[in-house]
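Team,

Forwarding the record for the chain on the shared tracking sheet. I've put the sequence and predicted structure together so nobody has to dig through attachments.
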Amino acid sequence: MISGSGSNMVALAESMAGDHPARPVLVLSNVPDAGGLAKAEALGIATAVVDHRAFKGDRPGFEAALTAALEAAAPDVICLAGFMRILTRRFTGRWAGRVLNIHPSLLPKYPGLHTHARALDAGDAEAGCSVHEVTEDLDGGPVLGQARVPVLPGDTPDSLAARVLVEEHKLYPAVLRRFVAGDRTPVLLG
């Protein structure tokens, strides 16, 4: 599930080849013109859109439409890859134990938004990313992997984000491979 350019989705999809135990079945976006949709189509992956704006004030309706699209594709695992909508207990409970998310911080530090700026403002010596199981607690599910990068002198939120993104593209596929094989031992990089 994506909301934007889909760079993590591409990393995941490209990793699911050969002896990988999973295959992509759908890329679902809440943004009709998300760049990742064209990338998914180019990779031969089915796409669907459930525009959240059509459900203003109706989160249950939005999540029911997401669930219908997902159920039609029958995924075993759902990977949130830059999906920028908060999901409620109703949705997370329906898919419990089957949803992963990549987050650009070393959780439990900095759940939510503006993670790189928050790490810099705190004077952290390192930053990174985490893959976690999605639960009803925002960015609070069990951590299944982390990658660390040093914070460099002169870093800006953008320069730090660019270095973390490189690690996201390594970490998320590694965690997914392990997760679909039934292994929840955390993957640690960096």
